[in-house]
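Database export, one record per block. Field names are fixed; values are copied verbatim from the stored entry.
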Amino acid sequence: MTESKDVNLDFDRENRTGLAEAVFCEGKSDPQLKTICDTVVLENKSMLFTRLSTEKFEILNSAHPQVLEYDEVSGTAFHLPKGSEPTVPLAVVTGGSSDLPVAREASRTLEFYGHEALEIHDVGVAGLWRITERLDELKRCKIIICVAGMDAALPTVLGGLVSAAIIAVPTSVGYGMVKEGETALRSLLVSCAPGLTVTNIDNGYGAACAAIRIINNFADLEE
């Protein structure tokens, strides 16, 4: 572990859990984030930054130009992303284009670990043909992260159509009674499709980490 003032980075986490240290940037001060970035660069460690605003990225980029690879849609940044080849066919699927920031957070996290996911967007159940015409591709996947707001019906539908492990991510997208994603979360928790894994609201990062844990165990079995 590396400690500096009120920042304590756990670089040994990947050895213990298979999941590398990541920095959740919301709520952290500019000096805290700069200290983290300074430490990561000094020790030449890989790092994933999540929920990093454009404004805070610009501050870090000024201190360490071109060190972080930033994606504005997902609010994620890499330092020294992993370079391993993908071993498991993956997909990230969204019900609507408004779910894209959460989905991109998931796909960027997978990319950090060296896994490129098939991305299929805006295929919600309001037009069921949109998902059924992509089924041949999805049936080849071992893990599908499915991101949906409103009533979050898409993961349940997929659960009745494919054999992949499905990690469902409810989002806060929608009107009125969606209650900032609570309705989607409750809907997924009572899904009639058995075996769905459900993350917290808008937690694309957590969904990708669940996928990485599965992948790591696939690799252990192959060995």
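Remark 1: The first strand starts at residue 2 and ends at 4.
Remark 2: Residues 204-222 form the longest helix (19 residues).
End of record.
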